Amino acid sequence: MTTRQKEMEKLEKTVKDNAQSIQLQQSLLEENVVNIENLQIQMTEVCSQLKELKDLCSGRNVDQRMIRVGRLDFPRFNGEDVEGWLYKCNHFFSMDKTPVHLKTQYAVINLEGVALQWHQGYITSQDRNIEAIPWGDYSRSILNRFSTRLSEEPIEELKNLQQTGTLQEYCDAFDALLNRVKLCEDYAAGLFVAGLKPEIRCLVKIFKPKTLRDAMAMAKQQEIVYSTLFGYKEIKKSVTNPITAVQKSNSTVFPYKAASTSVNPSATLSLPTPPAAKMIKPIRKVSSKEAEEKRAKGECFWCPEKYTPNHNCKFKQIYNLEIAADEESEQVLENDEIQIQQMQMDPQISLHALMGVPSYSTMKIIGTIGTKQLQILIDSGSTHNFLDSNLAIKLQCPTQEVSAMSVTVADGNKLPCAKLCPNFQWLMQGVWFKADVLLLPLKNYDMVLGVQWLQTLDDIIWNFKVLTMQFKIGNQSFVLKGSHNIGGGAVVGGRCRQQEGGSQQVV
């Protein structure tokens, strides 16, 4: 029993100790709850202070404009460049977070000269104080008074803008007009490239820039390359060259509406064109008396030999005879004449040029005139130069009426031709050329260059295998590179049909 009593006493003591520990823990827990409540109250106060500080920073309750990182000076205005001044004012209001009701008053303080005089008259004519005038109304009024661009059309000027001086001047003028309109990036880049000089525009267009930044960078690179290849020394030297002496007296400006840009005469090369007298001789007038004498003697009108049905005149030409009736007075004798339009040789054009059939004696070149790409065929089988009549109408080329003539085709057919385009100019692989061309309806090519043009090049090295043509003008050598023809079968008549494997068959 004694042992059990001791155990019971020991157990009771342990229970009492645990009870005391539990009471101590409860008192500590209650104390912690109080501390947590105090912390919550403090956190609430801190959050309210942070909210007030946030409101202070955002300018909701307190004006934050006195707290600035740097100094801001309001732009002053004396009546010049009102668009630029308004842009600076709006930017200042955005940086300064100026209240709406104070914007007009801020602007008035910085007026001077004629602008201040206008403001005084403007306020006098208003039935309200300066505090009641919104900034939008005031800015529109001052813009209408001092702007010099209200009657202009910036988008039209931007489309018609062309580079006539340096590239930097063109960029400055383009930026000034672009700031007045809103355009998408690729359209603005296209307008910028279209206004460049031909020698810069041609290569920039190859890369098709999509942004104005890329277009300006490419144009500057091309200007550097062009000035390096054709610097001031080369330009000054080329002016004294007899080949380009023609350009000094005749301005090389495109006479076509499709290409309204002017070409720098010192940077272009114009080939010597055979005189018109070599191709078309002036009208020969024969009196009716002389014609009667020839007829009485039985002689040919064009040579002293006797005329027979089988007569073969040594002066083989095309003639246009107009014999008028005789009158009694001497004045009528001058009007009764035979007008003869004679050519040195019959104009001839090959079947390759008309039908577009590739040949080993021809070479195709890609040329340009303004923004128009030309499909040019250099053809030794054609005697003269020919231009598509429909293209001449589109480009509004200046033409001259010539006496009706027939152009002989290689198959014996004849095509009528009655118009000539003198001094036609085009760009071919970076070099400017000029020549007289006859107008014919060409379906497969825009232009055909025949022997008339080839004979102006003097000695020619023409490699038909690699399609290159080398020639020299003065002390300068030039090389034209042609495009490769697919197939090369000859066609005597009929149509050419493409077969499998790239071969051609006459059908």
TrEMBL record:
Residue ranges annotated for the Retrotransposon gag domain, each copy included: 106-198
Record-level Gene Ontology MF annotations: aspartic-type endopeptidase activity
Pfam families per the UniProt record, alphabetical: Retrotrans_gag, RVP_2
Biological process, per Gene Ontology: proteolysis
PROSITE patterns assigned to the protein according to its UniProt record, in alphabetical order: ASP_PROTEASE
Superkingdom per UniProt: Eukaryota
Coiled-coil zones: none
Protein name per its UniProtKB record: Retrotransposon gag domain-containing protein
Organism: Mikania micrantha (bitter vine)
Organism classification: Eukaryota, Viridiplantae, Streptophyta, Embryophyta, Tracheophyta
